[in-house]
Structures are given as C-alpha cells and as structure tokens.
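pipeline: protein-struct stage 2 | run 1193 | Cytochrome p450
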Amino acid sequence: FLCVHSIMLEATWIGFSPMIGSLLASLLAVYYFAWCRSRFVRLIDALPGPKTLPFLGNILELNVVHDELLRKPSFDWIKQHGSIYRVWFTVRPMVGIASPELLEPILSSHTLVAKGNEYDCLIPLLGKSLNVAKR
C-alpha cells in the first residue's frame, strides 16, 4: 500500500492525474488522425516506400549495425521500392532519389541550391563542400 500510495503521490505532484493523462492521450490521437489525413501526408505517402509506424515512421528499420546503416537506404530500399521512394523519420518525411534522370533537374538548377538541416550531420565528414546555401 505504501509503494502504490507514493507512486500516486508522485503522479499528482507532477500534475498529471489519470484523467488529464487520458485527455492528453486522446488529444494526441485525434491530432495524429487528422494529420495522417492531411494533403501533405497523403501526397508523400503516394510515393512507394517501406511501411511506417505511427509517430516513429521508419526509424526502427534503421536500428542496425553501423556498417549496414548506409546499405539499407542506398541498396535495399532502392531494390524494393524503385529509384524514388519515401521514408518517414518520426513525423518528418524524406524522399530518396536514386535516378540520375530524376536528379538532373534538381542538381542543375541555380535556384534549388539551398541545403536542408540534414546536411549539418555530414559537415564533420565532408566539410563545407555541400553547404552552398542554408534555408
């Protein structure tokens, strides 16, 4: 009884009663349901890609040893889904393009030179060679 009472005391001390917790979970579920039906998500999901989990996306599929981390998106997903595919990292989508014909208009454009925040993790490896312009 003492252990259960102290857990209940801690939960109310934090400010989350069971009713507030279930209300927050319900609001989160409703928001996620509405977000999944948004035009943006439907357009991204129209692209082929691996199956996703709610809130996690495909992040669990990348929980592999270091040597396999680049092989999975660079070879396995291209083989399974084609030269253009989508991947969800939590609630952020990424589109992989492996076809030179599809990449040529993007890479040759002088207006599409801004690099996303994803390139920041490559700076220690590649230096600032890819950092032409930041959005």
